[in-house]
Amino acid sequence: MTGSVVLCAEDVDVVRDGRHLLRSVSLTVREGEHWALLGANGAGKSTLLGLLGALAHPTRGTVRVLGHTLGRVDLRELRTLVGHVNPRHPLRSPLRVRDVVLTGLTNTVEPVPRRRVEPARLEEAEALLDTLGVGARRDALWPTLSQGERGRVLIARALMPRPRLLLLDEPATGLDLAAREQLLDSLDALRRDHPRLATVLVTHHLEELPASTTHALLLRQGRVLALGAADEVVTSEPISACFGHPVRITRADGRWAARTGRGGGRAAGADRAGQGAPLAGRGGPPRAQDTGRESAHTLSNSSR
């Protein structure tokens, strides 16, 4: 791994109302890496994403985002350096798509009155809309967009400050099949066009992972169950343990799919999933392959 570190969490705990939401979580993301945070509902994915996006402080441990340590930096200033895509964007005004994207420059929901946008930044906004497949809708009004179109416009908005890190919180939520595929194709194109950009995407559906996903972290009950290269972590045994249900993982044309495994027994490793040592994935970029195999290296700790 040669890319510079974009964010790093070390032995992070988050406790709210006496309940542990995260326990001893560590993660390092480098430029050009594209991480997936996977886990069942309530596993702690959105809590972790909030830390990585400087939206909250950890109870214990250290989080460094773009070289800044949380607790020693103005969070409001740091948030302007991170692209954060929330599919529940609160905009209600009938803005044109182009103007919605330009609000990313000020990190505001509505345009700042009397603020003049330089022609070069306007061209940049339109180029992002083209990359994300919604350039033809640049003059459309926000309320007329489909859910899928809104998601891609919000990604363009998040990229306007030219962040080194883009966080996506379940961006495919509520999308139909066609809209989901258009979104994932757009994310793949974005990653090709911005090779130094690092991304972290939260989901609990493997079918929502772009083919360009390079790494994955599995969370169960607030603990890291596995992390590393996606082709070694997003495989049958660790995913079964993560979700507490036997599933068979396949990968074709770079995309993952899950099917329920045969038999009614508990998933391998499910009893250990919330109790400690993570299943260590091998680092480095994933190999191109179509496979549902379990990785012996990924599961090496489970036999210790």
TrEMBL record:
Residues 7-246 form the ABC transporter domain. It comes from the Bacteria. It holds the Pfam family ABC_tran. The keyword Transferase does not apply. Residues 268-289 have a biased composition (Low complexity). InterPro entries: AAA+_ATPase, ABC_transporter-like_ATP-bd, P-loop_NTPase. GO terms for molecular function: ATP binding; ATP hydrolysis activity. Keywords: ATP-binding, Nucleotide-binding, Translocase, Transport. Residues 254-304 are annotated as: Disordered. This is ABC transporter ATP-binding protein. It comes from Streptomyces sparsogenes DSM 40356. The lineage of its organism: Bacteria, Bacillati, Actinomycetota, Actinomycetes, Kitasatosporales.
